[in-house]
Amino acid sequence: MKSILMPLLVCLTLGLAPFTPEPHIVGKLKWFLGGASGMMPMDYFDLILHGFPFVWLIWALFKVFVKKN
Is the dihedral of CA 62, 1, 55, 63 positive or negative? Predict the structure, then answer.
């Protein structure tokens, strides 16, 4: 359980920052899934930067649950 604390903390801070008016990753995902019209290379980098903590959290959860079974 200890192994998911750091990825969870990073998700709640870097992954969701800035928090207002909506989390940054939510806006980037809407833009990307809406066709990515007008997205520049920096926007793709920003999507990867804010999305990586969630990939890390999924990986950590996977490792925890695979070890238990």
Answer: negative
Q: Which amino acid is at 37?
A: S
Q: Which residues contact 11 (CB under 8 A, 6 or more apart)?
A: 53, 54, 56, 57
- pLDDT, one tens digit per residue, over 32-63 is 999 989 999 999 999 999 999 999 999 999 99
- Report how far residue 44's alpha carbon sits from residue 7's, in angstroms, rounded to the nearest whole number: 21
Domain tally, the chain: 1
Range of the domain at 41: 13-68
CA 41 distance to own-chain centroid: 18
Decide if 3 is inside a domain.
no
Q: What is the pLDDT of residue 9?
A: 92
Report the share of the chain in percent with pLDDT over 70.
Answer: 97
